[in-house]
């Protein structure tokens, strides 16, 4: 996640630099627009990977729910909700950058992928909550 945070900062810096490019001539404007589209795409792709990593982390939280010390079970629910919050925050960053990409096909596919991941995350968080709320231990997963 720290690596992705660094990548996100670099992607945003690239976007900010593109937006500061000269635009006095048609050539400069065209170069600025192209750089902005490229940087906006990177600024969309990195937070989408953050959402994916949150979903992966949530899989581990879900696997532990109902299989850990009952006295610490609420920590797993907190972890699940933090994963969800991070994913939704990163998802907001994806969506805000997509219009600047100026590629409807990419935007549509990315939005669909994001919505699918967020729906999956929401379901997993609900499952964690249900398992924690039950207060019962589950059998260990088999290998």
The CATH architecture would be: Up-down Bundle
Q: Any idea of the CATH topology?
A: Four Helix Bundle (Hemerythrin (Met), subunit A)
The helix/strand series, from N terminus to C terminus, equals HHHH
What value does the Rg take, in angstroms?
Answer: 20 Å
- Note the total helix count: 4
Quantity of strands, as a count: 0
Q: What fraction strand?
A: under 5%
Shape: elongated
Q: What are the segments in which pLDDT stays under 50 over at least 5 consecutive residues?
A: none
Q: Average pLDDT across residues?
A: 93
> In which range does the helix fraction lie?
over 70%
Major pleated sheet: none
Please, how many domains? Answer: 1
What is the CA-CA span between the terminal residues? 27 Å
Judged by helices, strands and strand pairing, the structural class is: mainly alpha
Assigned CATH superfamily: Formiminotetrahydrofolate cyclodeaminase monomer, up-and-down helical bundle
CATH classification class: Mainly Alpha
Give the key terms.
elongated; mainly alpha; Four Helix Bundle (Hemerythrin (Met), subunit A)
Question: How would you explain this protein's 3D organization?
Answer:
The chain is mainly alpha-helical and 143 residues long. The chain has a single domain, classed as Formiminotetrahydrofolate cyclodeaminase monomer, up-and-down helical bundle (Four Helix Bundle (Hemerythrin (Met), subunit A), Up-down Bundle), CATH 1.20.120.680. Helix content is 82%, strand content 0%. The chain has four helices and no strands. It has helices at 2-19, 26-64, 73-101, 104-134. Helix 2 packs parallel to helix 4 (104-134). The protein is elongated, with a radius of gyration of 20 Å.
């Amino acid at each position: 996640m720290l690596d992705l945070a660094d990548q996100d900062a670099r992607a945003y810096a690239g976007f900010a630099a593109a937006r500061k490019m000269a635009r006095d001539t048609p050539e400069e404007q065209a170069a600025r627009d192209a750089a902005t589209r490229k940087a906006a795409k990177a600024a969309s792709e990195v937070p989408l990977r953050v959402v994916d990593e949150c979903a992966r982390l949530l899989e581990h939280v879900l696997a532990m729910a109902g299989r850990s010390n009952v006295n610490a079970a609420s920590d797993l629910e907190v972890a699940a909700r933090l994963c969800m919050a991070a994913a939704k925050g990163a998802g907001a960053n994806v969506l805000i950058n997509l219009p600047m990409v100026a590629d409807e096909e990419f935007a549509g596919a990315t939005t669909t992928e994001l919505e699918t991941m967020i729906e999956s995350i929401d379901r997993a968080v609900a499952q964690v909550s249900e398992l924690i709320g039950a207060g019962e231990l589950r059998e260990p997963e088999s290998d």
